[in-house]
Prior knowledge:
Mean pLDDT: 95
Distance between the termini: 43 Å
Strand content: 5-15%
Strand order of the largest sheet: 4-3-5-6
Low-confidence stretches: 1-14
Number of strands: 10
Structural class: alpha/beta
Bound molecules: Double cubane cluster
Amino acid sequence: MKAFYFCGPIIKTNYIMADYTQMWTDLGLNHDNHNALLDNLGKAYQSIFMAQENRPEGMSYFDFVMSEAHGLRIQELREEQKAGRKIIGSFCVFVPEEIVLAAGCTSVGLCAGADFAQEEVEKVLPRNTCSLIKSFFGFKLGKVCPYMEVSDMIVGENTCDGKKKSFEVFKEMVPNFYQMDLPQTKTPMARHMLKQEFKSFVEKLEEMTGKSISLEDLKQGIATVNAKRQALRRLSILRAADPAPISGLDALLINQIAFLDNPVRFTEKVNAICDELELLIKENKGVKTAKAPRVLISGCPMAIPNWKLPSIIESTGAVIVGEESCIGERGQRNLTDDSGDSLDGLMDAIVDRYLKIDCAVFTPNQERVNHIKEMSQQYNADGVIHYGLQFCQPYIMESFSVEKELEKQDISVLRLETDYSQEDMGQLSTRVEAFVEIIK
Ligand code: BJ8
């Protein structure tokens, strides 16, 4: 039996892992930093994920993907590059994967969920910047992210002020930065602007690849991404069962992997685990008992390896039944209408689909509160934990009105603010335990 890498020799398997040292050197990674990161993540993965009971068998594929997230997956991306595909990295669910695929490119997510090289980061960004932004700066400055280094183009979107202004610094650190402007309202003018931005993105990709996107290409791109989102939606809906058939941690992990894996293979594997979950539900088998308190998480996205809050919640005996988040339902629930018979018609459908995303950078944003209420009912949640990353103005500001509206409906809410550090673990645990006691 041989151990394998994501994160050091942690996850035991029969798989014989390759030596990726040369590939990491070619990508310019800093070996000491990278090994330290993998080692820490491996330990975290082992204690958080592998220690769970009653995991569906289908999770073994996602464990495998994680174990090879910096190995085999990067090798695959490099092979795609050799075959002429471009790799497009991005930080936001507003960057349309349909268009990336239609251009014959591959999309990867670059958001990061761990602190790294903080001292270096704070030389270029204010201390009071949210952890998500500091994290991807740290991964760049510490040279530990193979996805960032393998990307042919890095798309930065103007969403919150933090991202928008930090990209002014970040674009000086990478040679291949592309800025995408996004509206902050949903007026007809904003819709027009988004369409223009998406058209410019098409032009940029066509210029990079030297190939025009055809109607057929775009239809195929939409079909692939719709299938992926449908599979994730299927997974979400199965979590309404009581007892819940899968832990929130594992469901979050699958949603996180959606940003890294090959979309067609990923879709097959999500559907396969859904088949298994359906059988478990028929047999009335769950990851916890039917009495376990059910929690919905709402708020900022949780990028790999940000598992802190979900692991605290589930360690109390509660089960997380949904994520109202971009790495979760907010990012994946809407499909793109593929019935158009012209490129322009399909572009309209893509714009309409993306404008349904109810990110807190939009104003007004009543749809998000409505969606939280809807999810809370649909998944039979006993309470909602609102997760705000410290210094994230859009979500923290919105958390007050979310709390007020949910309480009007007698839905219990706990508003939390945290970051990626481990320092507040004790305090968070105490607050979460008290909340879970209340909603029991
Ligand atoms: S569509 S949620 S992925 S912007 S946590 S960096 S908001 S200060 S991530 Fe997001 Fe797109 Fe919106 Fe979704 Fe700013 Fe807040 Fe930091 Fe954030």
